[in-house]
Amino acid sequence: MSAYSGKAPPISERRLNAISGGYDLPETLLRELGEQELRQRVRTFAQDTTNDIIYALRLIGGIQRAATVVHGPRGCAMALLDRAALAAPGGPWTVTNLNERDTIMGSERLLRETIVALARRYKPELLFVVTTPVIAINNDDVVTVVGELQDELETRLVPVFSDGFRSRIGHSGYDLVLHALFRHVISRVRPAPADEPFANLITLAEGRHDLEELGRLLAALGVQVNPLPNTAGRHGLEQAARAIWSIGVNPDESEYLGAALEAQAGIPFVQPELPLGPEATGRWLSAVGQAVGLDPAAVAQLHAREVAALGDALGRHQLRGARVTVSLPAPYAFGILALLRALEAEVVGLSVHALDRRHLGQLERLRAERPGLPLHIGEGQRFEEANILKRLAPDLHLCWEEHAAVALRLGIPAVALRELGVLGYRGAQRLAEQVARALQNQAFAASLDEPSSAPYKDSWYQKKPGWYLKHEVK
Asked: Residue 72: helix, strand or coil by DSSP?
């Protein structure tokens, strides 16, 4: 049986040996990876964090001409409000709004009526049916409902089986959507020769600036791309099986769909490191050029022109001696280290959302360059981040938007990178400018440093950051 034939993919803990908690030295993590298994760290206390439903709805919100049915109680639809954080309004949506009777007796009739009403009113090209923890418990036969309605409706129905608690890794929700798109949209189209060769550019969470920059660079090399699933519609998704290559942007997020297209459709998957910083962007372009058969000299010339265009832009924003902490998804956190080193900043603290076997190479480099630097692992655990930041007292904190408040409330300047657009050559310039500006203007962060309004007691700051982290006992 194909790995892509089931309702949902294996969870990240099983598929990738991923962990969502830890405060360990690189040597410890590498030793465990050498033993073929990362030991799970269990938090005896944890703050709520972004789960797979929120990640799934984030991704769906960027797909064009799509509608969404959230199948569950109305409280589950609150996850849709997270779209505002990504400036992704998404298409029309509704919730089946289950009550206690529906939860106990089943709600397949209500689901059927909701899908039909939404499809006939808005006529979307794609209609996603996202299940929730309640459906995982009452076991509604969503597959049968969707299968029967698909024969009646022109809209392509895409069931996404999320339950919110099987995995502790929030971005598993991306895999759930990619799995559903591959099963119900991409693999249903019979591939036909394309008029002109093109590549799938697999992009999930990249913002407008990043997509424009990468599109500009690929166009300069003459590579025609089909961006998906972010910003794509049904036509773009159905075109995926006609591509000659697939190119990943974020190697963690693009891996599932790229591997599926390679395994099931024979489309080679190019998965370079994240193009963050001039040198990494050059390597990304080189890997793409080699895969699609471009002249290496042409790629080298483009890289040289772009570096020359930057001129002394990075040199003007040197951060010599600045102590910086980083809290980002693993590809961004590891990728930004080289750029900060080029800017002569010192990274004194590093936190990633999750860690798995795909990060072995980055861990090796981290051990070689900063062997004594502990790596914090944990998305949304603001109390642990606050403890680390209080101890380190950095000059600057680089993070996603939702983590910035942790640093600011301690009087530490923070730069939120998600919507800034930090990929490619121009992204590196924007990042350097923004970081230098934050270091020069610290009054706002200083004004928020009010001990009387601190979210945590002093007793917590006296404990070790990993106080509530215990190794799982088997």
From this structure: coil
**Distance (Å, rounded) from C-alpha 66 to C-alpha 123?**
9
Compute CA 431 distance to the chain's CA centroid, rounded to the nearest angstrom: 19
How do residues 309-350 score in pLDDT, each as one tens digit? 887 777 777 788 899 999 999 999 999 999 999 888 999 999
Task: Give the model confidence (pLDDT) of 409-419 as tens digits.
Answer: 999 999 999 88
Average of per-residue pLDDT values in the chain = 91
Give me the numbers of helices (H) and strands (E) for the chain, helices first please.
Answer: 20, 16
pLDDT above 90: percentage of residues in the chain:
73
Q: Which domains does the chain have, with CATH numbers?
A: 52-164+168-184 (3.40.50.1980), 199-310 (3.40.50.1980), 315-471 (3.40.50.1980)
Q: How would you label 8-21 residue by residue, b for 16+ Cβ within 10 Å and e otherwise?
A: bbebbbebbbbbbb
Distance CA 338, CA 334 (A): 8
CA atoms within 13 A on the CB side of 368: 7
Compute the distance between CA of residue 279 and CA of residue 261 in angstroms, rounded to an integer.
29
